[in-house]
Structures are given as structure tokens and as C-alpha cells.
Write a structure and sequence with these properties.
By secondary structure, the chain is an alpha+beta fold. The protein is 28% helix and 29% strand. Helix 7 runs antiparallel to helix 8, helix 9 packs across helix 12 and helix 13 packs antiparallel against helix 14.
Length: 557
């Protein structure tokens, strides 16, 4: 058995050596090479290019490489437990056992805020500091770790997904793993393990870790007195924060963007902002002025933001990609033409390149499979159910953002005498079978054509951005050999507005040209409406006359 705590057995981490081999934003550099763009640009000149050997030397690397789930036992003397009950934020002495290794005189306290805090008698969340009572002591190379009870995330996945995406976007973020924890003889259950914001964390990303680190402990935003975190800063200075606060407060300055660039790492902040919105991190800095860290990078003198507290992600899959920001820095950036344009480019690139549903689903599945061996059958069933909810939210976020971005890229159609010709069509992604082409009909009319020899739901679609009012979607259609399906309400060829039942006639069998129509209303605000020319049949073909595809504006609201 290995015992720690009676003297410094680990010694101090060689911060400079680790930092010189490390690089800020390892995935950032890869993304830049792949994308060939500046959407995820490097944050400051002090970072070095990553190398495979440097990543393996990061402190705590062995904890975060998808090995077996940790098994940790915390032992606290009765008198120390009483002290925690009296003041749960004050560190007390404890012993931590991991397998055959024992860490003595570990500083522990409770953590968590409204919603996640639990008392000792329940399932408390913990902060463990290994160096506070034993200077230089480390846990797998880390001074501090957090054990989050994940009571607001029964999937135990959100923190891992969120922090991983931030790092891929080029933003320093804590690494995450899992542990089965007990307090004395009492099994507390599964926890999310996160590294703390300490010198060890900073050394992974910066050559010089002597900058000041702040958290919103005494104030919510940069114009208030943020709490300074105890790290190895050369001097306790708030000057950069004060400068940033002055810049964001000067709303009418014509040189606001250039002033922001001098004090704020704008590229890193754009990535930070886009990632928070992409993940629906409604309890973070941009949307709530909560759960974040601010760091003064030494070499450049610029401010960076780090994410924190991501146990509640993706709860609002319909969150606008251009939401109303709460954080003063986020608002100031988007109030400048340069910041708004660059945020748009950054968000679009991040969504396209990082939000890959199959990859995210696979990550969730791997986490669940890794955790399963330490859970009871009932616990695993609950975890599996919660993880499936996360996967559904990932898909919902994907679909909602696709619709939002399509809408924002569209311009309102032009109506001449109340009529707009519909010329831009694409095949539906959810088509089950069928052959599509633009061909002349048997009597020579250029048409959208669908042909099937088996049961199919096939369609051509187009999206239009419409203001409030009443509309009529029309087209001439002709069918040949259309065999109705043995199920469903709509049969054969017809027109439909997405989200509504088919209003037009159902064309089946053989039919000469007929005019089909679907009428609909747009409510109180501009909306993206999807118009559909579809075929639901076991066999047959349909032609929709291109010249007849049109939208009529009947009235405005």
C-alpha cells in the first residue's frame, strides 16, 4: 500500500517543463489545419503547436484517457464532519483511498449551489485539495479535483460533452472523468470528476502561468469585483479587468472593436461565446453571467474566458443562435459590426465542423458503456434512459439550428401582383425510396419528376421566409400508374405545407394535368415555411409542372 501525506512523496510538478511541451488549444490547431480558415483562430502568441508527446505529459493525463471508472473512498473523522455541518465551505482534514493508495491530510469541503448542493447526509458534491495541508502533494499530478454529484444531470454526460467541445473549439476547459465514491462505509454512488482551475490546469495551455485568475464569487460581471483565485500570479492586479470593463461600458466609441482587441483575446472569446450558445449553456457567462472563469494571459496581457458548470446543457434545443446576451462582454462584442460578423462566421463554422450528431452519439454511448460495470442494474437502467434523452436533445439541437440558419440565410420572396414563382427545389432528406429528376413530361412540360417501384414516401421541398398573412401554394400535376399505399391518410401525389395535413386532392392511378392547391396562414411573426410536392405510393410516377409551381399571397395580417 502506498501512503501519501506524511511527507511530500510526489514533489512539485515541473510546471515550466510541462508547459513548454504543451500547447493551448490542441484541437484548435487541428481544426485550423482541417478547415483552412480563421474561424477557430489561435488565441494568443504565447501558445506552442501541440505534439503527441506533449499531450501525454499533461498532469493527470492517466485519469482522463477512458480507463476504468475510479473507485474513491473518503474518510472524515466525526469532529471534522461536525465542522463541515457547521461550515460546509471550510476545508477539513480527510483521508482518500484509491485502490491500494492512501492520501492523508487531504483538504475537503462541500460544493454546489442552488439545485446541486446536498448536505453530508445526502449525496454531497466535493472539492478535494491535495496541496493545501501538504504543500506539493498531488493526485495523479493534480493539486485539486472536484467530485460533482450530477444531481441535475442523471446522464452524467453533460460535463464531459461540454468541456470536450470547448477544447475542440480552442477554448481551455477542464478535463472530466467518473468515479464511484463512498464516504466511510456509506456508498454515495457515481460522481463526475473534474480537474480544478489551478496552476496544473493553466500549465497545460500557457508557457507563463503567472496571470491572475478570477471567478464570479463576489460579482457577476467584469464591471464588478470578481473574486481572485489563488494561483501563482506574479502580482494581484485587477488592471486588465478594469480596462475591459471601461471598454464594454463605452457604448458609443467608434473604435470599440479595436479597443476590445487590445485587451480581450477576441478570437478565443468568439469561440467561447459560440460554444456556449451551441450547447445551450443557459447557466454560463454569455446567457446568465454565471459559471465562468476569467484569466489574464501574461505574455499578451489579454483577457480569456474559461467555461464552467455545464451539468445542464441542451435543455433548450430551440435556443436562438443569436440570443439576447446577458454578459456585458458578449453584448459589447455583438454591438460592433466586426464582432457580429465574426461571431456569425465562427458559429456557422463550429456548427458545421464540430456538431456532428453521429460523433456526439458515439461519445455518449462510450461513456455509458464505460460506466456500466460499476453500477447496479437499476442504476444502469436509469443512466441509460437519461443518456438516450441527451442523444435526443443532440438531434433536436441539430434540426433546430439547421432550420434557424436556413431561415436567416433566406430573403423574403418577391411577389409580383400577389404571385411568386417557386424555382428552388431539393429532394427531401427523409425520402425512403424513389427516383428524382427534372425532365420533360410525356407532353413536353419541364417537371419535377418522382418515380417509384416500391412503397415510398418521396418529396421535393423548398423553404420560403414569409411575413404574417394568408397564402395559397399551387401546382399542376399529372400521374401515371400510381398505386395507393395500404396505410396512411394521404395517398398518391399531392401538395402539402410542412407540419400540416395535406389539403390538396390525392392523385392516384392515371390522371391528366390537374391543379392542386394548399392554403395556409403565417401567424404573428416572419416564419420559415416548407412547401412539399410529394408522392406516397407503392408504385407509379408523378410530374409537377415547373412553370405552374407558385405561391400566391391572398392577404396580409
Amino acid at each position: 500500500m502506498t501512503v501519501h501525506g506524511s511527507k511530500n512523496l510526489f514533489g512539485s510538478l515541473p510546471v515550466k517543463a510541462v508547459a513548454q511541451r504543451a500547447a493551448l488549444r490542441r484541437s484548435l490547431a487541428v481544426a485550423c489545419l482541417v478547415l483552412g480558415s480563421t474561424a477557430f483562430g489561435a488565441a494568443s502568441s504565447s501558445q506552442l503547436a501541440p505534439s503527441p508527446s506533449s499531450l501525454s505529459s499533461w498532469p493527470g493525463n492517466d485519469l482522463f484517457t477512458n480507463g476504468p471508472v475510479l473507485r474513491l473512498s473518503i474518510d472524515i473523522r466525526p469532529e471534522e464532519l461536525d465542522r463541515l455541518r457547521h461550515d460546509d465551505r471550510k476545508f477539513v482534514h480527510a483521508t482518500l483511498t484509491e485502490g491500494e493508495t492512501v492520501y492523508r491530510n487531504v483538504a475537503v469541503r462541500l460544493k454546489g449551489s442552488v439545485g446541486s448542493f446536498r448536505p453530508i447526509e445526502d449525496k454531497p458534491a466535493w472539492t478535494l485539495d491535495f496541496s493545501r495541508f501538504n504543500p506539493g502533494e498531488k493526485f495523479h499530478g493534480l493539486r485539486r479535483i472536484h467530485l460533482n454529484n450530477s444531481v441535475e444531470d442523471p446522464s452524467y454526460c453533460n460535463e464531459w460533452i461540454g468541456n470536450e467541445l470547448f477544447r475542440q473549439a480552442g477554448v481551455p476547459a477542464p478535463r472530466v472523468t467518473h468515479a464511484l465514491v463512498s464516504l466511510g462505509d456509506r456508498r454515495l454512488g457515481l460522481y463526475v470528476v473534474k480537474e480544478g482551475f489551478t496552476e496544473d490546469f493553466l500549465a497545460c495551455y500557457f508557457k507563463d502561468i503567472g496571470g491572475n485568475l478570477f471567478e464570479p464569487g463576489e460579482g457577476h460581471d467584469v464591471n464588478q469585483r470578481l473574486k481572485r483565485v489563488s494561483v501563482a500570479a506574479a502580482q494581484a492586479s485587477r488592471a486588465p479587468l478594469e480596462t475591459l470593463a471601461k471598454v464594454v461600458a463605452d457604448k458609443d466609441a467608434p473604435d470599440r472593436w479595436s479597443r476590445l482587441e487590445r485587451i480581450l483575446d477576441t478570437k478565443a472569446f468568439l469561440n467561447f461565446m459560440a460554444a456556449e450558445v451551441l450547447l445551450c449553456h443557459r447557466d454560463g457567462y454569455c446567457l446568465a453571467r454565471n459559471n465562468y472563469r476569467v484569466y489574464e494571459e501574461v505574455d499578451s496581457g489579454k483577457i480569456l474566458f474559461f467555461p464552467h458548470g455545464m451539468d445542464q446543457l441542451l435543455g433548450s434545443p430551440d435556443l436562438p443562435w443569436q440570443p439576447q446576451m446577458s454578459g456585458l462582454v458578449a453584448r459589447a462584442v455583438l454591438k460592433t459590426p466586426e464582432g457580429k460578423q465574426r461571431y456569425h462566421a465562427c458559429f456557422s463554422s463550429m456548427f458545421t465542423n464540430l456538431w456532428v450528431v453521429t460523433n456526439l452519439d458515439a461519445q455518449v454511448d462510450r461513456l455509458v458503456a464505460r460506466i456500466q460495470p460499476v453500477l447496479t442494474a437499476s442504476e444502469f437502467s436509469d443512466l441509460k434512459t437519461a443518456a438516450e434523452t441527451v442523444k435526443r436533445r443532440i438531434v433536436a439541437r441539430q434540426l433546430n439550428l439547421e432550420a434557424q440558419l436556413r431561415k436567416d440565410q433566406l430573403s423574403a420572396p418577391t411577389f409580383n401582383n400577389g404571385i411568386c414563382q417557386l424555382t428552388t427545389w431539393e429532394t427531401a432528406a427523409d425520402t425512403t425510396a424513389g427516383t428524382f429528376d427534372r425532365v420533360n413530361s410525356p407532353d413536353g412540360r419541364l417537371s419535377l419528376h418522382i418515380l417509384t417501384h416500391s412503397e415510398t414516401t418521396a418529396a421535393w421541398k423548398t423553404g420560403v421566409l414569409l411575413s404574417p398573412g394568408r397564402y395559397r401554394f399551387e401546382a399542376n400535376a399529372m400521374v401515371a400508374g400510381v398505386k395507393p399505399l395500404p396505410f396512411g391518410n394521404h395517398q398518391g401525389a399531392g401538395l402539402r405545407v410542412a407540419g400540416q395535413k395535406r389539403q390538396s386532392a390525392d392523385l392516384t392511378g392515371d390522371s391528366a394535368w390537374q391543379t392542386l392547391a394548399a392554403e395556409f396562414e403565417v401567424g404573428s411573426e416572419d416564419s420559415l415555411i416548407e412547401l412539399i410536392c410529394e408522392l406516397r405510393a407503392g408504385a407509379g410516377e408523378v410530374w409537377f409542372d415547373c412553370a405552374s409551381l407558385r405561391l400566391m399571397q391572398k392577404s396580409k395580417f
